[in-house]
Design goal:
This protein has about 240 residues and is α/β, with parallel strands linked by helices. It is built from seven helices and seven strands. Helix content is about 45%, strand content about 15%. The termini are far apart.
Length: about 240
């Protein structure tokens, strides 16, 4: 039986890598992202596996847009077995000294409010069916603050870790499981938003999006009796 998954941030980075691996395995996947063009690029990369991919342009930080997309996805898919919250952002001027209110709210909306809105869109039908897996791509900045990440990003990721724990605390008895994956440095387009983006030599030492996608698939494919509550992954 075909499994259904929703992946946010599906137009690049880890989200794109997750989509491509799920498509290879025959999953039906709803791709969410702000730019339809980026989602279309992901679908093109899937090649012949793209037939089971559905694209939804959606700003995950917009509660109304997420609720509307959630209704559309459930109407088309019927059920959602897995939700992967991969969308996230940061800003160049990220220190406490420089961070603007607008940039702060942009990060909180995308990195924390968005996953919460998505959980609320799909958790009820998981609960009704007595099964479901939610994967939140956090960051090792959700374990320990650093100037490299900046306070807005750190706060949002600590919050996302808390959301993951709350899902398990309340829903594990109803067949739902949630996993927080805490990656270190990954070579993704998000690096371009650093105040001083790393060069190619530095990027070559980092993890690749496919590495984190493999972690996602590992957590998804474990028997339902198993919950990987947290996974900390860093470059060797």
């Amino acid at each position: 039986m075909t499994k259904n998954c929703v992946v946010t941030g599906a137009g690049s980075g880890v989200g794109r890598a997750v989509v491509l691996k799920l498509a290879q395995q025959g999953w039906r996947v709803a791709l969410l992202g702000r730019r339809l063009e980026a989602l279309q690029e992901t679908a093109q990369l899937a090649g012949q596996n793209a037939t089971n991919l559905k694209l939804y342009a959606c700003d995950v930080g917009n509660e109304t847009a997420v609720a509307d997309s959630g209704r559309r996805i459930l109407a088309e898919f019927g059920t959602v077995d897995v939700l992967v919250n991969s969308a996230g952002t940061n800003v160049p001027r990220r220190s406490l000294e420089e961070l603007s209110p607008m940039d702060y709210h942009e990060m909180i909306n995308a990195n924390l409010h968005g996953p919460y809105y998505l959980v609320q869109a799909f958790l009820p039908q998981m609960r009704a069916r007595g099964e479901g897996t939610i994967i939140n791509i956090v960051s090792d900045a959700g374990k320990l603050a650093s100037p490299k990440a900046g306070p807005g990003y750190v706060m949002s990721k600590f919050g996302l870790a808390g959301l993951t724990q709350s899902i398990n605390a309340e829903e594990r008895g109803r067949g739902i499981r949630a996993c927080a994956i805490f990656p270190g440095d990954i070579d993704t387009p998000l690096l371009n938003k650093r105040p001083a983006p790393p060069d190619e030599t530095a990027r070559a030492r980092m993890m690749q999006p496919e590495d984190i996608a493999d972690c996602v698939l590992f957590c998804i494919q474990l028997p339902p009796r198993v919950i990987v509550e947290e996974m900390l992954v860093r470059p060797r």
